[in-house]
Specification:
By secondary structure, this protein is mainly α. The chain has 3 helices and no strands. Helices cover about 90% and strands about 0% of the residues. Keywords: Membrane, Transmembrane, Transmembrane helix.
Amino acid sequence: VGLLRKIHDLLDRAQRQQRQQDFSVLRLFGALFQMFAFVAVLWGLISLFNEEAAPATARFTLACFLQLAAIGAFAADRIR
């Protein structure tokens, strides 16, 4: 019984460590940047269909920068 309890504790500890390693702040920021980039693209498309080209260009540029930030965060997480 004692040996089974030790094995169970060891497996629980390994599972907890795996869950902690799966979480990454960089991946979280990358996902947030990517969601904001998607929203900026939609915002740009809406303004483009309203025949406002200047704000649409600025919003598409914002989406590009946000997407680059997301790629950078994902790459930094992969290197780490």
